[in-house]
């Protein structure tokens, strides 16, 4: 038996080795679903399936990276990088680069993040002469996003009686027009928002039979983790892709479905068996993660939900400790208690910082934990909060880079046209947009022919200089890498100098952030696509931009750092920690006050609680405070109803007191009617969350850099200095070849090598395992 199959239980092994046909695994938390998926990919490859033919969709980029790493370990080759493995968004963005032209987009299309999308919405609302107070970008965005994820296009939206009625009742009758104008505007800007990455992929497969055929043929094996949280758009895409070969394997747990507000529906799980000819269903019943006490508590909690798929879950582990239920006087006392408990557990039980996780319902709760951990000198990392790439100076810099790649990108253009100040004021910008709209061309095209549109001579000169500058940057694209261009842009625009000259504390911080951005671009060009093979890969500005747009905040932080991890329960899905604290178990906070009006909402909160509890391996602490500041008001809280759902013999109760004195203030898509799909997907907006940036967050990119710069452990290269053109070499993966060219800098030499079997490749000598023969 292959080594990787050892240690799997019989059901897991069956799931791994049943490679042909549709397969569904619905099983409880910690039963090895993700492990099965990873091992299955390794097994497919060991059986000779080409990595290029495997598509694996995960919920986070981090999960994808972990899977690749584990597969690399099992198979010991660099083949893992040829897998199409990642989140729906990142995989589809990669595919779209090559296919966007079919849908009328430039292949250099921009990906708009939520901020960009909201800014377009603001413009659209203004242009339609609607009240911006009434049609707030957030509300419009959520509604449009809901429609897109339900595969309801603008035309269908406008034509659907029920949707229109709903908007009337909500007193926002013009949402359909806003949606249509927004979609048009994004298209004109050559931009897709996050949801577009899904729906455009769907349109591609639905409307272009040759594209459908191509990808059906390519992705012979499809695997999906966390299937319970796929939304209708994702579901339809999988169905299309899987239809030809039917080798679709999905794993999920209906008890952990926690994204109905984003349009996910567990109907997908129930429907799966009808979608394919011969579906094999495998159960996994052994939990390998948690102690029996934790598992029993979780099982009892979820029993309060109606209509769960019946599952058994047992564990062989020793009973373990009771769950600690701790009441505190205030939220600050709660933070203090958790910090003390971490210290005590580290001392007595030899846990490390990284063994602890603090989970909460909303980001705002992180403050009190953060304060007490800092006071106690315990290092921590917060996942969530303001991401590095959301900071103004970083967004400005990136807007320049985006505009260079895609001059039609109006959002980017507006952002930097007068930054640093160059005499192109708001009136000029408004005029340019007006001309663009009147003539159905882009704002950039107006600027290019500014003389024709009759701008005043002073303004005209400023515009011409700006256009010439951007064009000169643009001309660097074919020959220069991302770093060279970015560095040049920073210098030529005077942008970096301006930040450098600002000596206020914030100014210094902004300058440092920009330097950090440049460092990270440098790192991008100096890191091979595979550390094992040292292969260079595409280092163009376009590739760099795509990569960072799809980074989430969590991806920028090192999950292996020896720090306590803090995150919302939503973000903790799929993860596990030896010791878990779940904070704020209070009515109106958890369950959230916004989610207790219907049974469906409450059941989703309960599933969230189930997810939280099942992250714990050895010890679980549940805490709640009598009083807490919420939006600046001191509130008194009842304990959460969920507490009573845990069998009391599994719980040790205690009180950690303290006084109040410590308080601080602080178009015919999909199936079913459009309305039905929308109704399933439009649920309450996410609660308003306050965010805090951690001290550690600022250093996050630095941490990542250290990791990326560490060469592989068994790194035995030939000394690059001895290497010369014409020499014969052997590469660990690509075999024998001849050195054709040597280039790159002294500290990062790059060789072009013509391999006998694998053709010509650029290899980074700092990474490559190369022997002179
Ligand atoms: P979740 O529902 O939370 O995503 P999951 O079902 O995906 O959980 P995994 O994360 O794959 O579960 O596995 C949980 C833990 O159990 C992991 O640490 C994994 O390595 C371990 N595990 C799974 N199967 C086995 C096994 N056969 N032997 C030993 N450990 C196992
Ligand atoms: Mg999992």
CATH H-tier superfamily of the largest domain = P-loop containing nucleotide triphosphate hydrolases
State the shape: globular
Mean pLDDT: 86
By oligomeric state, this entry counts as single chain
- CATH topology type of the largest domain: Rossmann fold
Bound molecules: adenosine-5'-triphosphate, magnesium ion
Task: Characterize the main sheet.
Answer: 8 strands, mixed
3D architecture notes:
The protein is of the alpha/beta class. It has 5 domains: 10-102 and 199-286, P-loop containing nucleotide triphosphate hydrolases (Rossmann fold), CATH 3.40.50; 113-189, Arc Repressor Mutant, subunit A (Orthogonal Bundle); 323-385 and 555-652, P-loop containing nucleotide triphosphate hydrolases (Rossmann fold), CATH 3.40.50.300; 390-530 and 539-544, PCRA, domain 4, CATH 1.10.486; 720-772, Beta Barrel (Thrombin, subunit H). The chain is 43% helix and 15% strand. It has 29 helices and 21 strands. Strands 9, 10, 11, 12, 13, 14, 15 and 16 form an 8-stranded mixed sheet that branches. Strand 2, helix 3 and strand 3 (84-87) form a beta-alpha-beta unit. 45% of the residues are buried. The structure holds adenosine-5'-triphosphate (ATP) and magnesium ion (MG). Adenosine-5'-triphosphate is lined by residues 7-9, 12, 29-35, 253, 256, 288-289, 574, 576, 614.
